[in-house]
Write a structure and sequence with these properties.
It comes from Streptomyces bohaiensis. InterPro entries: Aldolase_TIM, Radical_SAM_STM4011-like, rSAM_sf. This is Radical SAM protein. The protein is of the alpha/beta class. Helix content is 26%, strand content 23%. It contains eight helices and 13 strands. The strands form three sheets. It has a nine-stranded mixed sheet with strand order 6-5-4-3-2-1-9-10-11, with helices on one face. Helix 1 runs parallel beside helix 2.
């Protein structure tokens, strides 16, 4: 089986306090962190054991994972396994990056987001430059709020040329054509994010070759559809995998709509679907 898995454990703590994020400056208790570590290690063990499958893994924690040693270790260990096609994580890049030297850079990738006002611009750019120089595959992105436009333009100027800079349309924000053109000058693919995509009744790879898994092993087709398909650890989910259409009216998040079969995004991002890097970038 060729399977893409989006994993989101109980971790919900973050060292940033972005005003557009409900998990800003949230702290998990010691007990919660232990539970997250145990859940992640269980998932990592499952992934390592699936040698008969080809797996692509994306960690999408609510909080910041790379400040925790168990996420860094999981990414490193999984990157060396021959049946893991890709292992990636969404991160604010606030933590140290030296650990990537121990990973297989043909498999590891990072989906990085710059949050203006949360970390010095120069520090963030220096980290991206260092990752690029060391051959660590990564994309960088910014939430497309009006007050972030100057920072995004500056990022595009100062980031390594080979690093793709994506722009996420801000939740609830409507863009005029003139505003959209300004963002598209930074990210030529911004049009895919500008509007929510109609999805009701349209075929989607989620629930067939893409699944979402939580810390207990509950499998759903994606993060945005709550129907359960079974459990990862008892294998009950496998019998439920089949072609499906989307039950939601629209899909407005990249990690969801990128899997819609009615959109050409598997071609647009060929080889970089999980880390959000366009083909040939």
């Amino acid at each position: 089986m060729d399977l893409t898995v989006l994993y989101r454990g109980p971790l919900a703590s973050c060292d940033y306090d972005c005003p557009y994020c409900p998990f800003a400056k949230r702290r998990d208790s010691t007990e919660q962190l232990r539970a997250d570590r145990a859940a992640l290690e269980r998932f990592t063990g499952w992934a390592a054991s699936r040698t008969g499958d080809r797996l692509s893994l994306l960690f999408t924690p609510w909080g910041e994972g790379l400040v925790r040693s168990w996420y860094r270790r999981a990414l490193t260990e999984l990157s060396h396994l021959p049946h893991i096609r890709r292992v990636a994580i969404q991160t604010n890049l606030g933590g140290r990056t030296a650990w990537t030297a121990e990973a297989d850079l043909d498999t590891l990738a990072l989906w990085c987001t710059y949050h203006p006002g949360q970390t010095p611009f120069e520090r963030f750019v220096a980290k991206s430059r260092r990752l690029a120089a060391e051959g660590v595959r990564h994309s960088v992105g910014v939430v497309g709020l009006p007050e972030h436009l100057d920072a995004a333009r500056r990022l595009r100027t100062e980031l390594p040329e080979q690093v793709y800079l994506w722009i996420n349309a801000a939740e609830g924000h409507q863009y005029t054509d003139a505003e959209a053109a300004e963002w598209a000058a930074v990210d030529p693919l911004f049009s895919w994010s500008r509007h929510a995509h109609p999805s009701a009744g349209r075929p989607c790879r989620t629930g067939e070759s893409v699944i979402s898994v939580d810390g207990d092993g509950t499998v759903r087709r994606c993060h945005f559809v709550r129907e359960e398909l079974g459990n990862l650890y008892d294998g009950s989910y496998r019998a439920a995998l089949r072609p499906r259409t989307c039950p939601s009216q629209v899909c407005d998040c990249h990690i969801g709509y990128v899997h819609l079969e009615t959109l050409p995004l598997y071609d647009v991002f060929a080889g970089g679907v999980l880390e959000r890097i366009p083909a040939g970038w």
